[in-house]
Design brief:
alpha+beta; Cytochrome p450; 12 strands; three-stranded antiparallel beta sheet; single chain
């Protein structure tokens, strides 16, 4: 029986079903969606790295209805392959290389500490810490003024609902509206930064050049929104899922409290053990063999990152949560050309939040069962109630 991405039991705990799928074959056909599923680490890694499969954006139709969504996707690096991907990523990376990540490190640590200290003796990790921290970090990175930052989370949340296996017409309409409003806002902000540049990423995206080449207006919008959506959603969900895993393994929590040098490896294990992104789809440009299975030209194949991250061929005792796991070649940040550009910042954010919780919520425990968001692709909780 094929895996059901909408089954509440699979959404609550996908790993038994993913293990069965991986044991059945490294790559298998999923008839309900028409996709092939890469479940082993080797197969998922090949999907992410093989240049014969890629992201080939085709505008959603009807174009006049979907243009706000299409505009932001046809012009971003994640939905393109070389040479377009190479050009876009190079220009965005040049702007990133202005020291933005290290510039934010002290501010991220200070904000994480403030949020945890103000959370109270009982709090929801997501609304009290994870979401405001992620919004602050990405807003500081881009240069979004503080009075406008409340706009970012709703826009991001609406847009990423489009990446699920199934969607309602209402969610699709909300995503189109969010794309239009977000683009209009950033267009105005970019124009202001062009006239009055500051030391933020929007200013540097406006100014960045490679010889005579530069991002055009639509590419700048698409790049900025990609960075916000990917960084914001992944950070919130990684912290939520990671802390749930940590408190459900009290021996590991105590070990981490006793040895703070393990914070970096603990953060990596959080991403491996319960990754915030579970499915990444690519399309075969030509007949392509992945782990012994031929994907025909035009066929779609999904890298199942959660399955790959628990492959016993790569990870010793893969279902064990081990904060000192080393090596840990998880695929939580992707691989190959599409490896997450914001991974260094995501690591800083996750480690800062973890350190703040250890320092200021030393008796961390769940006060209720966490509530899952009813989605498979983006694995997330909607509430994680904790006692400090």
């Amino acid at each position: 029986m094929p895996i059901d991405f909408e089954d509440p039991d699979v959404i609550r705990d996908p790993y038994p079903a993913l293990a069965k799928l991986r044991e059945q074959a490294p790559v298998s056909r999923h008839e309900p969606t028409g996709m092939w599923l890469a479940a082993s680490h080797a197969a998922a890694d090949a999907v992410l790295r093989d240049r014969r499969v890629g992201r080939f954006w085709t505008d959603r139709e009807p174009a006049e209805v979907w243009e706000p969504f299409n505009l932001l996707h046809r012009n971003q690096m994640m939905e393109n392959e070389p040479p377009d991907h190479t050009r876009l990523r190079s220009l965005v990376a040049k702007a990133f290389a202005r020291g933005h990540v290290e510039r934010l490190r002290p501010a991220v640590a200070a904000e994480a500490t403030r949020l945890v200290q103000e959370a109270g003796p009982e709090f929801d990790l997501l609304t009290a810490v994870a979401e405001p921290l992620a919004v602050t970090v990405i807003a500081e990175l881009l240069g979004v003024p503080r009075p406008d930052r409340h706009l970012l989370r709703p826009w991001s949340a609406a847009i990423v609902r489009m990446y699920e296996v199934s969607r309602t017409p209402e969610k699709e309409a909300a995503a189109r509206t969010a794309c239009r409003e977000f683009a209009d806002y950033l267009r105005d902000l970019a124009a202001e930064r062009a006239a009055n540049p500051r030391d933020d990423l929007i200013s540097h995206l406006v100014a960045v050049r490679d010889g005579t080449d530069r991002l055009d207006a639509d590419e700048l919008l698409a790049s900025a929104i990609l960075l916000l959506n990917a960084g914001h959603e992944a950070s919130v969900n990684a912290l939520g899922g990671g802390v749930v895993a940590l408190v459900r393994h009290p021996a590991q929590l105590e070990r981490l409290q006793q040895d703070r040098a393990l914070v970096p490896t603990a953060a990596e294990e959080m991403i491996r053990y319960d990754p915030p992104l579970h499915l990444f789809v690519r399309t075969a440009a030509t007949d392509t063999e992945i782990s012994g299975t031929t994907i025909p030209a035009g066929g779609q194949i999904a890298a199942l990152l959660g399955a790959a991250n628990r492959d016993p061929a790569v990870f010793r005792e893969p279902d064990t949560f081990d904060i000192a796991r080393d090596p840990n070649p998880h695929l939580g940040f992707g691989a190959g050309l599409h490896f997450c550009l914001g991974a260094p910042l995501a690591r800083i954010e996750l480690q800062a939040a973890l350190a703040a919780l250890l320092d200021h919520a030393p008796h961390l425990e769940l006060t209720a069962d966490p509530i899952h968001r009813p989605t498979f692709v983006l694995r997330a909780f909607t509430e994680v109630r904790l006692r400090a």
